[in-house]
Specification:
It is a single chain. This protein has 19 helices and 12 strands. It is an alpha+beta fold. A hairpin with a 5-residue loop joins strand 11 and strand 12. Helix 7 packs antiparallel against helix 8 and helix 11 packs antiparallel against helix 15. The longest helix is centred in the first third of the chain and has 26 residues. The protein starts with a helix and ends in a 16-residue tail after the last helix.
């Protein structure tokens, strides 16, 4: 990591720092130069290791739009995945996800005079970063900062004296650091064309490697975490450490102190995700055999699908604890009203920061209780291209028992998924089985997700669907079940929708509300987005490459 990033981070002084409430976020300031040197006991290491993840990874530097990683970098995923749109100009949120053109039902073509690729590259400068208009900056900043801090954590672990079973506590701390390093590398490798591998405290590097190499490094650390968990012998000491590393306010609902087996299953889910979201599985215009002719990645092979199937079979199960986040009234990881994409989208569309996309809503099937419980047409927001919408999210839902709630701005009510979830794992099992020819088996997993979220619609596993229809069910369910979890762009990319129609991409049969208020149901959208982002100028300009790997995506 370039030193300039670390020095920049020091400027973001924590509001709670070392005085944080013990029952909320018990962190030190991982950026203060003297903190690491002063960590001499378990309590200090807990604070430092927790802050490395939750503060450097998910808070610092994200106060431009909302107030966390889950409102800004997650926001870009939902924008580029066409789940939400925006009117505000902050960080290009109103222009970044505008497609190159939209063809309406009547044949009228609406062209974008400032295409997304040109927008993102024109604003990828240090000057625009300082002004708050460089989208490429934030995810890189957070994940590189998290990784750097965890390098310091790993250097400290063997220097501390421990009470109880020291070996089990050391293994727990190492599993924590390895897991989140794997998470950070996955985030970099899944979003940027290239990256840096830095695994020593204080080390810098100009040797950029491809996103595939970054994903390999993610896999390495996720597997190291699983190995460390295997060294835990005393459950009580393990639970004591992990129970302090995970904030108490996140130990509710699906969040909690994971058993070692639960954590290993969480790891397998992320390993499966690393394969799935970084390969192509084109499904363009309902064609399972579609191909993309110009891309920064390759298509899923049978071996890839089998690897996903094996990992997800041993992935998160129903009832497993996962890593989640919750809002609090103070000293928060994120606020209830502005810290997540969900909170910024909840409320009447004419006043919410993000506007719910018509393309999102069209994926619900008739009679789905998730639609009727969460969304209503309380206002109409009209705009050019694709941002017009008739739909708004009802704050807290309408109270239907057992039905998933998409947005809740009450403090502590909304459960944010930071890493994997049961639904994601089940839908990976569904897609892998479908692609491997076991359609009914795959659709049974999809049916279970719908039941789990209280959709209340008829099952499809028993309908003898052909491949194209089964994949359409899968696409629709991933779009609605995994929304606001930072996955929407990756899905649109791997299904081929974000690529230029000239290269086999595009999206068809879309609902688009035109600026005149006309509802189109068969609109064609040519997004033509970058598939993997360029390295932010704050890194590439100040830390120029010494390798042959470009820092600018050469395929666009």
């Amino acid at each position: 990591m370039n030193r300039i990033h670390f020095h920049t981070l020091i400027l973001f002084l924590l509001a709670f720092g070392l005085t944080a409430c013990k029952d909320q976020l018990d962190v030190g300031n991982p950026n203060a130069p003297t903190v690491a040197g002063n960590v001499t006991d378990e309590s200090g290491l807990v604070s430092f290791a927790q802050g490395a993840v939750y503060i450097n990874g998910f808070v610092n530097g994200d106060g431009w739009l909302g107030n966390s990683y889950f409102s800004l970098p997650y926001g870009y995923s939902e924008l580029l995945g066409d789940v939400v749109g925006a009117q505000a100009s902050n960080q290009l949120v109103s222009t970044l996800s505008i497609p190159d053109y939209v063809t309406l039902d009547n044949g009228q073509k609406l062209a974008n005079s400032s295409p997304s690729i040109g927008q993102i590259r024109a604003n990828n400068t240090r000057a625009q970063t300082g002004s708050g208009y460089n989208p490429t900056y934030y995810q890189w900043l957070n994940m590189m900062a998290m990784n750097s801090s965890l390098n310091s954590v790993l250097k400290l672990i063997d220097k501390i004296s421990y009470s109880g079973d020291a070996a089990s506590k050391v293994a727990t701390f190492k599993a924590w650091a390895y897991f989140w390093k794997g998470y950070a590398y996955a985030s970099i490798g899944s979003m940027y064309y290239a990256g840096l591998i830095i695994d020593e405290e204080g080390k810098t590097s100009s040797e950029y490697v491809t996103h595939d190499a970054i994903i390999e490094r993610s896999n390495y650390y996720l597997n190291e975490a699983a190995t460390a968990l295997g060294a835990v012998k005393t459950t009580a000491d393990y639970e004591e450490v992990l129970g302090r590393l995970i904030p108490s306010f996140s130990q509710v609902g699906n969040g909690g102190v994971l058993t070692t087996d639960m954590w290993k299953r969480n790891i397998n889910t992320l390993l499966a995700r690393n394969i799935l979201v970084n390969k192509l599985a084109p499904f363009v215009n309902k064609n399972p055999s579609a191909t993309i002719t110009k891309s920064s990645t390759t298509a899923m092979s049978t071996a890839d699908w089998n690897a996903v199937l094996t990992l997800a079979t041993n992935g998160i199960k129903k009832g497993d604890y996962v890593f989640t986040g919750r809002s609090t009234s103070s000293n928060y990881l994120f606020s209830a009203s502005g810290g997540t994409v969900a909170s910024l989208t909840t409320g009447t569309n004419t006043s919410s920061t993000f506007k719910l996309s018509e393309r999102f809503v069209q994926n619900f099937k008739t009679g789905d209780k998730r639609l009727t419980n969460n969304f209503e047409q309380t206002g109409t927001y009209l705009d050019e291209m694709t941002f017009g919408t008739r739909w708004s999210i009802v704050d807290g839902g309408k109270g239907a028992a057992g039905v998933y709630v998409y947005g809740n701005r009450t403090v502590g009510a909304y459960e944010l998924y930071i890493a994997g979830s049961y639904e994601e794992n089940a839908l990976m099992l569904a897609e892998a089985n479908i692609r491997l020819g076991k359609i009914s088996t795959g659709l049974a997993f999809l049916d279970d997700v719908r039941s789990y979220q209280g959709a209340g619609i008829a099952t499809v596993a028993d309908k003898n669907l052909v491949l194209a229809d089964a994949l359409q069910e899968l696409v629709q369910e991933r779009r609605v079940a995994l929304v606001f979890r930072g996955l929407s762009f990756y899905d649109s990319r791997r299904w081929g929708w974000t690529y230029d129609i000239a290269n086999g991409g595009g999206s068809y049969n879309n609902t688009v509300l035109s600026s005149s208020g006309t509802v189109n149901t068969k609109a064609v959208i040519n997004y033509n987005f970058l598939d993997y982002w360029d390295i932010p100028a704050d890194e590439s300009s100040l830390n120029p490459t010494t390798s042959s790997v470009p820092t600018k995506n050469p395929n666009f």
